[in-house]
Design goal:
Radius of gyration: 30 Å
Structural class: alpha+beta
Number of helices: 12
Distance between the termini: 48 Å
């Protein structure tokens, strides 16, 4: 389905087209005029530029010629191989490019047969910071000596790629703003997917076969599920950019991955019985030339190990068209960076795995007052880190894989003003109290679960397997005081009750005025319980913990068949009176009636010890004995803003 989209700069395609047809004038875009200011802002023109319409460039212009293909695109006089590589990936997926180029048949023109419908106007759609935008352009394209100077097709009368590039340049402010970028950013803009970047050197995938195999299965799965993939080689210095390696690969240059396969070796019948398969990746150079010359290149002798039928199935062609195959082992050894745009399935009508999506828009906003500051910087800045925005969510299954994406607003539009660089961003994840409802002010018992990497990229991604519990996610810039908007997306297997923690402490209400307002706060974590042997029973038990304070009750999950259980169950209580005790009970889960194994009663005043301690379990009634002990830590404060 073509998504609903908001008109960019309030330009409505159908209304503008209707006006042009009625007035019999071709559309000229006032928001992106055919002038030098739409081309470059810091460099000279590559020659005398003339803006021409397709009918002035060739006799029979078309949006598409024989459909859309990854072979249609060729990079022009602009350092935007990243964008062209993304377009090559997009062309492989009809379900995706039809969203970017809506109603392509309706937009296709034939000025000879239907001249009255030709208005010189087109529109494209991009996913920008959480919403789809519909971008209108005229068909005036920059040329030198009658030839397109930027992205173009290998067929002279096909213009979808040039017009798509113009719409993307309009979104960025000008063509030069597209000089240098990330392929995965463009893929996200085409799909609304999740961007994941993999450093092949850091993972040492070229050396460890087990990790290499796992990575291949992940990439194969992503490809089969509609994911878009690109790769590149990081140059060691600025002078190393676009330098060709000994095997024909270009450094600092984006390649699109056009296929991922397990290729049968040898005769097809024998290969089935021997199960001989080679992991292979097919790529395309946006230049439409200069290919890999190592093993499994187009005309290498390695292809003799593959049957003629299998080669035909792979679509192997011996031509300098920029597309080539590589063994996955060589791919991991020669490339350094991989970008994957995951198209995460959230449809309830799908037969394959679906995800629950939660979205939050926020901002890093500096303020001199600590309680109002929301730009505290990364975890290194301990005094201000917790002043950042905080978001809470729950994992309700025993274990659940979560996908987290943090995206800052694109700064490319500001390049004309001499800025436009991304902030360095990332996020931290903490396992917190089961009943946490207010912002964290100091970390005493919370468990620092994970931290994303920090980089000056537009988006950061984390995939993490989390046990049951409540978590707080804190997105940050690396430096304190940086101001920007951000978009936070969370994907889980089930509903996660994702929301921002806005309040610092409980609000004063009529009820709290009548019944009493909290005087202090207590945090408690029960790490473990041991020696849990009930009277008259041999072997393990099925223990769980219950924490009670002031009428509030927190229960842990049940640990099965053990006498030494690890819980790490956390709770926080806003207390009206520190004289009311805090009770920790250990229970044995049974079929008919659960059995109390013992308890600990704590006063938990602000002056009580804050170190971890191991305490013996007591019976509930006076004089009742109990076996075992609990290890816990309790922290109390008479300030509601300390914990």
């Amino acid at each position: 389905m073509v998504p609903a989209a908001k008109p960019f700069k309030d330009q409505k395609y159908h209304e503008l087209k209707k006006q042009c047809i009625q007035s019999r004038q071709l559309f000229e875009d006032p928001e992106f005029p055919a002038k030098d200011e739409s081309l470059f802002f810091s460099r000279p023109l590559p020659g005398k530029v003339q803006w021409k319409r397709p009918k002035e460039i060739c006799e029979d212009p078309r949006l598409f010629v024989d459909g859309i293909s990854s072979h249609d695109l060729h990079q022009g006089k602009l350092g935007n191989c990243w964008f062209v590589a993304a377009c090559s990936c997009l062309a492989l997926r009809p379900s995706l490019w039809t969203k970017v180029i809506p109603k392509a048949k309706e937009q296709e023109w034939d000025p000879r047969k239907r001249p009255e419908c030709y208005a010189g106007i087109f529109h494209f759609r991009f996913w920008c910071f959480g919403e789809w935008l519909d971008v209108v352009v005229d068909d005036l394209l920059p040329t030198i000596h009658g030839e397109l100077i930027f992205c173009h097709s290998n067929v002279q009368n096909e213009f979808w790629s040039a017009l798509l590039e113009k719409a993307y340049a309009k979104l960025a402010g000008c063509y030069e703003a597209l000089d240098g970028g990330s392929t995965v950013d463009a893929l996200v803009d085409f799909t609304g997917g999740l961007a994941e970047s993999i450093d092949l050197r850091k993972g040492r995938y070229g050396e460890h076969i087990t990790e290499q195999t796992k990575l291949f299965e992940d990439i194969l799965k992503a490809h089969r599920r509609g994911g878009l993939i690109s790769c590149s080689i990081l140059p060691l210095s600025p002078t190393d950019r676009e330098v060709e390696t000994a095997h024909g690969l270009v450094k600092g240059h984006a390649y699109s991955v056009t296929d991922v396969r397990k290729v049968r070796l040898g005769d097809r019948l024998l290969a089935i019985f021997r199960a001989e398969k080679l992991f292979m990746v097919r790529m395309r150079n946006p230049w439409g030339r200069r290919e890999w010359s190592g093993p499994w290149s187009d005309d290498s002798e390695e292809w003799q190990r593959v049957s003629r039928a299998e080669r035909a199935n792979l679509g192997l062609t011996v031509a300098d068209d920029g597309e080539f195959w590589m063994a996955f082992e060589d791919w991991c050894s020669h490339f350094t960076d991989v970008d994957i745009c995951h198209n995460v399935n959230t449809s309830v009508f799908s037969l394959r795995k679906t995800w629950e999506q939660a979205v939050a828009r926020g901002a890093w906003v500096p303020h001199q007052e600590p309680l109002h500051n929301r730009a505290g910087g990364c975890f290194n800045n301990r005094d201000t880190f917790l002043q950042n925005p905080q978001y809470v969510f729950d994992i309700k299954k025993a274990e659940d894989q979560v996908l987290i994406s943090l995206q800052q607003r694109d700064q490319r539009i500001h390049r004309k003003e001499g800025c436009g660089d991304n902030f360095t961003i990332g996020f931290s994840l903490f396992k917190v109290e089961e009943n946490r409802r207010f912002r964290i002010h100091h970390m005493h018992i919370q468990e620092h679960t994970s931290t994303s990497t920090y980089a000056d990229t537009r988006a950061m991604f984390l995939r993490k397997l989390l046990p049951r519990g409540r978590y707080v996610l804190i997105p940050t810039t690396f430096q304190p005081g940086d101001a920007s908007d951000f978009l936070l997306r969370l994907f889980t297997d089930g509903p996660a009750c994702f929301q921002e923690l806005k309040l610092d402490k409980p609000k004063v209400t009529c009820r709290s005025l009548l019944c009493g307002f909290p005087r202090g706060v207590t945090q408690l974590v029960v790490r473990s319980a041991g020696g849990l042997v009930p009277r008259g029973q041999a072997g393990g038990v099925d223990p769980y913990v219950v924490i009670q304070c002031g009428g509030e009750r927190i229960r842990s999950t049940v640990q099965r068949n053990t006498v030494d259980a690890v819980f790490n169950t956390q709770a926080v209580f806003y207390r009206k009176d520190f004289k009311d005790p805090l009770v920790v009970q250990v229970w044995n889960s049974k079929l008919l009636c659960d059995q109390l194994l013992g308890q600990v009663v704590l006063v938990a005043t602000p002056d009580a010890p804050r170190d971890q301690q191991t305490l013996p379990l007591q019976g509930k009634g006076q004089g009742q004995a109990a076996s075992g002990h609990v290890t816990l830590r309790v922290v109390s404060s008479d300030s509601l803003l300390e914990l």
